[in-house]
Amino acid sequence: MGLDPSDLKSVHDTLRSIDETSNYSKIGGALAFAVTIASMESASKSINEPLFRILSKEKQFKFPFPLGNILGGGAHAGPGTPDIQEILICASGAKTIRDAIETNLAVHKELRQVLEKADPFFTNGRGDEGGWAPKLTNEEALELSAKACENLGFTLGKEVSLGVDFASSTQWNEEKKVYVYDRAGFENSTDEQIEFVSKIIEKYKLIYAEDAVHEEAFEDMAKLTAKFPNTLITADDLTVTNKEILTKAINAKSCNAAILKVNQAGSLYDALEFAKVGNDNNIRLITSHRSGESTDSHISHIGIATKSKMLKIGVVGGERIAKLNELIRLSEHDLIRGMAEI
Fold first, then answer.
1. Which of 93, 132, 163, 217 qualifies as a cystine partner to 88, CB 3.0-4.6 A?
2. 247 near 274, Cβ under 8 Å?
3. Residue 263 Cα distances to 8, 31, 275, angstroms
4. How many CB atoms lie within 10 A of CB 329?
5. What is the pLDDT of residues 311-322, one digit of tens each?
6. Is the pTM value of this prediction over 0.70?
7. Can you say how many angstroms the Cα of residue 18 is from the centroid of all Cα atoms in its chain?
8. What values do phi and psi take at 165, rounded to 5?
9. How far from each other are the two terminal CA atoms of the chain, in whole angstroms?
């Protein structure tokens, strides 16, 4: 292409001269993502600097807290599992990235023991992102996840914290204007959904609540954000790594945190622009993997470079561990000191 690989904007602009559509419908978002990542990786290797330093002008960096799926349900697991899509673990009291990773793994392992005792028919099945996929109700899943933490001597909200990805758009019935929990056998109005989520946040001291209402419910998200300033009320389906939609959410005060999915944005440049809007407006970023993943570890660097508070990258599975291993390797770098302030 005859371009400086370290000049991400020039690479991005060249792609845009070929495909001016908003969603890269001519060349495909996968190509835009791959070309921009490959460009920056080439620049990184040519000057022997880690990717996170190429992506940011910061002098010092911090590690995001790993956020991992320990129990799965909904669309990412099979029939009989909870309606709630993900119960997540965050070692919120960890002082080092290694301790955070090891703590998450210990909870995941302990939860298996708890599930086996609770259900003799549990087959050790796992969902798309490595969380256990038992046949439980929402309440049972949350209770047993909390029990696994307590069995290890942890206090929820202190050494460790739970999070939930409600994935509420999968429950939302647009025609009836209700949230339909097929597996649990109940429906929630919009007000009932807010109360349902609120009770879970309060009871389990959630540090993180993702997609607590459906993907167009800006006002309902704003109610939760105002009610729980110390919980990451996180937009994923609401903002879809789109800086214009994120700006709308910011103006509506619909979230205090947002998911960053690089390949959802299109190019790496688009993702960094989204991150800039978030950081400029005190929106805490959570750089995230996808349910279908590869062993690529670039998002570990991207999470650090974008000042993300968390990295949603799982606990087990080769495609998840590749990203965790990269964080451990980066712990030897003297420019990264300590953990992010959530």
1. 163
2. no
3. 15, 10, 13
4. 12
5. 999 999 899 999
6. yes
7. 31
8. -100, 105
9. 41
